[in-house]
Amino acid sequence: MNRIIAIITAALVAIALPVFAGDVIKVATETEKPGGSSKRRLYMPPANLAPLREKTRVQSGATRSARAPTTLRAVAPEHTGFTIKAQPTLFWYSSRRVDVPVEIVIEAAEGPLAAPLVDKRFQPPFEAGLHSVSLAELGISLETGREYSWRVIVVVDEARRSNDVYAGANIARVQEPEAFASTLSSASAEEHPRIYASAGLWYDALSSIERLRHAASDGAKVRADCRDLLDEQSLQQVSCP
Q: Cβ(161)–Cβ(192) under 8 Å?
């Protein structure tokens, strides 16, 4: 299987890569380890993307209940995460049960100020752990070549919205790499997370892991891929299901 993944990765890097904002996206294939050695990554992020600006970078928040603080995270990289899907799935994490409403807000990351594409409230409770919401459920689609920001907001006190706790990240829909569909169709479903991740498609890699989990695939391998993907983006506090 490692040989298959290596061949697929080489092919994806060699073909025409996704285009975003007019630029060809280069994929970082290795990460340096102390002492100069390198290790092949599961997730190969686009090499020419800078971390998000401070006002839009991945943010985490905490709120204190009677028991203990609750940590909220957008499960996303600290740069703009990519998808080839019109209606991808977004993931967020809470370290403890949430018993107040949660809102999901999605808006254009650039351009003139406008009303959010989505501002939807979900009612509690929300158990501790990983949560997901699909854009199909929210009734919107992303345009290819555009960047969006999204936030998950815990409404701690309805009368004092300044007490809201939120976490956010950015997402962009990019063009599908040439022959990518045939690469997926010729591979097993268990290989899909690594194929998406090696192409720099964060949101699609995480979604494919979620699909495998619900399909009762090899649980140990699914959890290992999930753990590797999260750890590579400093999301160690997020627990894999």
A: no
Residue with the bigger pLDDT between 116 and 46: it is 116
pTM above 0.85, yes or no: no
Nearest-angstrom CA–CA distance, 15 and 12: 5
Q: What is the pLDDT of residues 79-92, one digit of tens each?
A: 999 999 999 999 99
CATH 2.60.40.10: does it fit domain 60-173? Answer: yes
As given in the structure block, the two tokens for residue 10 are 């080489």
**Annotated domain spans of the chain:** 2-48+175-231, 60-173
